[in-house]
Predict the structure of Aspartokinase.
Amino acid sequence: MKVAKFGGSSVASAEKFMKVADIVMTDQERRIVVVSAPGKRFKDDIKMTDLLIALTSQILTGNSYAEEFKAIIVRYKEIADGLKLKSYICDEIAENLQDIIDTYKEDANRLLDSVKASGEDNNARLMAFYLQSLGLKAQYVNPKEAGIFVTDEPGNAQVLKQSYRELANLREREEILVIPGFFGYSEQGNIVTFPRGGSDITGSIVAAGVKATMYENFTDVDSIVCVNPTIVEKPKDIKEITYREMRELSYAGFSVFHDEALHPVVSQKIPVCVKNTNNPQAPGTLIVAERDYSKQQVAGIASDEGFCSIYVSKYLMNREIGFGRRLLQILEDEQISYEHTPSGIDDMSIILRKCQLTNGKEERVLERIQKELNVDDVKVQYGLALIMVVGEGMTSSVGVAAKATNAFSEAGVNLELINQGSSEVSMMFGVKETELNKAVQSLYKAYFEQPVSALTL
Ligand code: ASP
């Protein structure tokens, strides 16, 4: 049994729905379909989820929301009309959305989550209806009925363990089941959404629950490429990659697969295949527990901008017990999350996304560090980009790190920081944002265009 998840761009129009139906029909193993809300049809199009968020803010500010409401129904109607479906399905969608608004309009968080979730929910109803119209035995299944139970954190749900037991019952069902992605139900019965892009997470939870032989993740690219294609032209495809490698890459800017979506399938060792809805014959990228890395130690290079570093220096910091804890406590008090903390004898840097320091937090944090920790120097350095070189073969091979440092020196890029060792499968480098492209291009050349010379131990 396979679970096939279709992302927003794969279910954005009637034409895409037809492709999905073809894909479902060509493989009888595809018994469970998870869908996103309609995504973008063209570059400047607006995703359904964003339309729904705009609708919610109109409601919450007490403004008229008729226009936003209409835009949402029009999107579904275009799909339904293009598929020649009976018009009452869109009347039902409109009623369902109005019901949600009437029920939750006094509770901002619940309203936002329930309205957002309706994007996938109504799209799943539409998909099931369409598959039925083609004569398939298909059935919409609500996440509550499926047994997807989550923590009660609006917009940030995490799956509860009991879900896997409940989901196992879906194996007995004979129909093709269509489940909306992106949300589950709390034990109190509230609709709670995962973080943005979270339909990938639903697909993975369902695949783990039913012990699928494969979790197929359909999107709009033939395969995952090994580096950001806006930095390196036509980079190589990744044919096979491990869970650990994928997790590191998606954390650091690879947007193809949600970085929280692997966890559920990992323990069951269910392979994940990222495939293209527009070209389903292409083999795609296979994400597995283990791969033979003797010929390609490095799987990919991820990079992202928008970081900054809080640099703290104090003579004899290494001997001051509790210094690190008190420093991090200041961040915790301000609800700031950080990414890395490279440190030296007398210095420590905290690398974080710069958006974490807005709304006066920067001034408050610097002042407290200065006063409470009595440091010699504290400053924030902006304009930092992080690069992760990721590969299972890295720790057991000689010369992999040397290749990176050579690549930086050949490109004339100064390294702001290096972090190697905490993760067995990645090395992290910090460079100035202005030097990012040069650095990544040079690394790509070193790892993917030159013959493998590193020795495997
Ligand atoms: N529709 C949601 C979003 O745009 C979830 C998803 O598509 O995975 O974030």
